[in-house]
Amino acid sequence: MSPWPDSWYRHSSPPGAAAAAMAGDITCDVCVVGAGYTGLSAALTLAERGYDVAVVEAEQVGWGASGRNGGQLISGYNKSVSAIARMSGPDDARRLWALAEEAKALLVGRVERHGIACDLRWGYIYAAARPRHRAGLLTQLRDAEALGYDRLRLLEGADLRALMASPRYGSGLEDGGSGHLHPLAYAQGLARAARAAGARLYENTPALAIDTGAAPTVTTPRGRVRARFLVLAGNAYLGDLAPPLARTLVPIVTYMLATVPLGAERATALLPADHAVSDTNAGLHYFRRSRDHRLLFGGGVNFANRSTADARPKLTRALVHCFPQLAGVGVDHFWHGSVGMTVSRLPQLGRLSPTAYFAHGYSGHGVALTGICGQLLAEAISGQAERFDVFARLPHRSFVGSPWRVPLLRLASLWYRLRDLL
Ligand SMILES: Cc1cc2nc3c(=O)[nH]c(=O)nc-3n(C[C@H](O)[C@H](O)[C@H](O)COP(=O)(O)OP(=O)(O)OC[C@H]3O[C@@H](n4cnc5c(N)ncnc54)[C@H](O)[C@@H]3O)c2cc1C
Predict the structure, then answer these.
(1) Can you give the CATH number for the domain in which 114 is found?
(2) Contact present, 368 and 103 (Cβ < 8 Å)
């Protein structure tokens, strides 16, 4: 069992009801590997449709990215709709946008229906980290308007600073249809809903090996699962369990900190209307207020997928660069996690075989997209794959393999840092 990260989330959310580890062999219709948002969403939808579902989780619910992320519920993808249209045509780009919108509605519906207390709030700003990034914001605004989405507005100068007391940003795109939530509480709520719908959950049960043939099996330390279908939902934490998937995904480390409680007045002055913010740099920074009046601040990506000793002081310096009024502020919690990044920066959904399905690689947009992608996995297993195939036909390009992978990723990291600086 690996330790939990020292995240503010872990300290501010009561532990979910623990599930026992699997002991002995079992059979089920669908075995889901991984109890993050993707696996839990697939399990919930399948259980609601009457499937016998078993979820095996190597650690505990939400231990992966789902329990330690920035909590930002963001419209669309980590790529503009016009860029998606250039890659996959205007019709699929429109379908993908509609699915991303449905993702937010699905999340809200589940939070309401299952009474998930996860502090869901609305309001988000995509802030231009450089003056030249303003053009990208305008592209996004035009794309959204062309799709009939009218929740965006461009903010500049004093209008922006009225919502975000940072001298670092000159313009930003406010999105009233994006927001933020407590990520671990949301994961635990999904797990409760899936179990209430009949899914069996086994924590501390790593899948050690899988067979994706006609009679799929999952081998765990104390028993084997025999299923009709497998869902692989380990994302950036799946490792080499399915080598073809590992080649199409790069796990990238990003860091977060939680300041000491600032008091209601000081915290509110930073983000008066309680927006979540992320910026346009490749090594982006993202932040928001917590309900106990801290600033939760993240960023500092590490493309070589390892944490480094200087990450904490670097992130603290970045915090003060954004908010000079926080110079010298105490930091109570610091943690990191892995984001699953794809070459296209779009999620990848697909089949390893007729019985083994996967979804991963949300590239920093998983809080919203995982819910719908989990549902699409369930739809495909139920025999309705039209919407699943909109994602499945996106190109799944591989990253370069060993021994060049790590040196090249370091080089990429340097290149992006240089680009952010210029
Ligand atoms: C620090 C950080 C900040 C982020 N901020 C944001 C944000 O603000 N907004 C946003 O939209 N996205 C954000 N993301 C990304 C988002 O968190 C992810 O896209 C999303 O949580 C992915 O969910 P998942 O269920 O696919 O994967 P995970 O939540 O990572 O779940 C995978 C699970 O599978 C389990 N597992 C892996 N291998 C095995 C195995 N062999 N056997 C059994 N279990 C296994 C793991 O233990 C893990 O619990 C952030 C990510 C990080 C790390």
Answers:
(1) 3.50.50.60
(2) yes
